Amino acid sequence: MHKNRLEAFSDGVLAIAITIMVLELKAPSHGSSFNDLSGLLPNFGAYVLSFLYIGIYWNNHHHMLHTVKHVGAGMLWHNLHLLFWLSLFPVSTAWAGHHPDQPVPVAVYGFVLAMAGLAYFLLQQSIIAHQGKNSLLAEAVGSDWKGKLCVVLYFAAVLLAFVEPWFSNAIYLGVALLWVVPDRRIERTLGRHQNE
Amino acid sequence: MHKNRLEAFSDGVLAIAITIMVLELKAPSHGSSFNDLSGLLPNFGAYVLSFLYIGIYWNNHHHMLHTVKHVGAGMLWHNLHLLFWLSLFPVSTAWAGHHPDQPVPVAVYGFVLAMAGLAYFLLQQSIIAHQGKNSLLAEAVGSDWKGKLCVVLYFAAVLLAFVEPWFSNAIYLGVALLWVVPDRRIERTLGRHQNE
Amino acid sequence: MHKNRLEAFSDGVLAIAITIMVLELKAPSHGSSFNDLSGLLPNFGAYVLSFLYIGIYWNNHHHMLHTVKHVGAGMLWHNLHLLFWLSLFPVSTAWAGHHPDQPVPVAVYGFVLAMAGLAYFLLQQSIIAHQGKNSLLAEAVGSDWKGKLCVVLYFAAVLLAFVEPWFSNAIYLGVALLWVVPDRRIERTLGRHQNE
Amino acid sequence: MHKNRLEAFSDGVLAIAITIMVLELKAPSHGSSFNDLSGLLPNFGAYVLSFLYIGIYWNNHHHMLHTVKHVGAGMLWHNLHLLFWLSLFPVSTAWAGHHPDQPVPVAVYGFVLAMAGLAYFLLQQSIIAHQGKNSLLAEAVGSDWKGKLCVVLYFAAVLLAFVEPWFSNAIYLGVALLWVVPDRRIERTLGRHQNE
Predict the structure, then answer these.
(1) Which residues does chain D have within 8 Å of residue A28's beta carbon, measured at their own beta carbons?
(2) Could you read off the pLDDT of B15-56 as tens digits, one per residue?
(3) How many whole angstroms separate alpha carbon D17 and alpha carbon C20?
(4) Which domain holds residue C20?
(5) Who's near D40: CB < 8 A, 6+ residues apart?
(6) Which CA distances in Å does B78 have to B71, B72, C179?
(7) Number of domains in chain B
(8) Which of D16, D20, D22 should we substitute to test contact with C (largest number of C Cβ atoms within 10 Å)?
(9) Which of A75, B15, C142, D5 is most deeply buried (CB count within 10 A of its CB)?
């Protein structure tokens, strides 16, 4: 099985998820003032955050698959599992965007983030298991404290949402910014190997 | 005609179908409690099931086209026929998700599954007819009791929905799980041929 | 400029148009009986027809681009013009599906068909102009009485809709069936050239 | 990193944005007269304009990436930034289409155009910075007075919307027409180099 079609399908799902999220940003059809616009602000903020997250996933997914040559059945299901949680971003974003100060929507948003993070981690492990411990990806990722820490932070934010939802929102934003700095580990390891 | 564009178009339709289904999972815009969330549970269950089915179709479609070299006009129409029934998943999923205990929506869900299964079977037969009886796909699929059985089970579930909708739902889930175990027949036959 | 990206973009727009049309087939969220289902029948019929048309366009577009090597700026705009009219299918389908017996929605449906047919014809002419009169496509298409006739029929149906909308609907269906028989002209001409 | 996947993802997002915009053109489900249709006219006009803009962006993006060989991390984020603003087209189009004579929606439409223009300019600069001042793109673009002027015009239109929204709408249309004439600078420079 070629990885091209896996990449194309994943790109398709991500491109659609990132684009249909905007359908939840409903233009106020009966109002045309600044007030009507400012009512959209929390939804807009949630949209920006989720756009960033899907952009990050697309970017990292891209780097990770760069190291893959052969696609096994397990990897295929792990990838679908990741896409499942990412496909829920539009609905969790819409709900949290409507109620950014309410525990349940904010916790649900974090839960979807946490499960997507976990699914990404499992996909990564399944690729490493397939390639062997000395593979490029295994070396680049190392113990992957960054990936693990994020999943822990998401789950912590889910619990924190019942204390103060804005703490959770701050964590979601903070983790996103942590990843905007692109994951140079794979590029760096690749570079090292080419120099040897 | 190249198969690349057929694959790309099919992947596109499947990626979109799998993603827009989530638009029917409407975030409760006026509520923000666990109760509002639990009202979405049947829809969420239907979403998971249909996501699984489209994932399975994508996976199997992928394997099947792997054996194809030349795309004829008949195959193209059979493929479009399959995409037609798969494109109805979002609407049948939304209806059955709203009424998982009602005969008609559950029967309609099963009917769409059955027709998609039938369309897949016809596509497969048209490829085999094109490649000849001794082709790789013909050998891998054999008498395809699994594909035929599933279509029969779907139609049985359509009828059963008028007795007890939950029996039908159990069949839909059971058949899906039967397919999550990936269809190794093609891979196995391919492997055998390479070893000879 | 490579034709790959033109094909990919066109396939993307067609795959999305064909899939989001289904969003207009709204599952009746408050009813779960056969009656609720039968209320969807006209919309379903319109959906099937438009699905067929987009499938036909995808198929023919595919064959036509097969003969193209270099993509000029004019061709690019003609292609975008075609995609514009095809992108209106979901909205014209939804309106005609709600009112299959009313002159204006049925006429609008036909107008969109006619303009798409015209845009396809113009795209074809721009490719022939680019390739020269002795090109493969010019020979395969000939005077293209079929394409021209269809555009005339669509415009006739637009006018007829104000006499009897069902006459127009019959024309839309009839022309679609005329095209389901795939356009073998390009394949045949190609085959002849390879045999020489 | 290959540019193919960047192109594919961008094409996906643009194809979806251009297609889902049509979902905001809601078919009047309870009316079937010319009056119901004419009520859609402002929305239709906004749709045509935004379709044109996304077509222009797709076209120019295509030409620009033609000159790129290696994709760096910065370029990737600049590209995502551009896609972000383009993804807002459906919502800004829907709002301005509902209220083409109101200052705030018309200004918001222009603001999204301006930010997309700015993001495109930044992406272009990041490519030139990566390729060096003597690169093909740098030479083709020159001081890019056209790109800069448009961003200035968009921002001017944003302010003008509070004086007379129709002035702004005229600017949006005028700038679009300025770009429909395809940007031949890259093609011309390419041609010159091949002749040397």
Answers:
(1) 95
(2) 999 888 888 888 777 788 888 888 889 999 999 999 999 999
(3) 12
(4) 3-195
(5) D25, D28
(6) 11, 10, 15
(7) 1
(8) D22
(9) B15
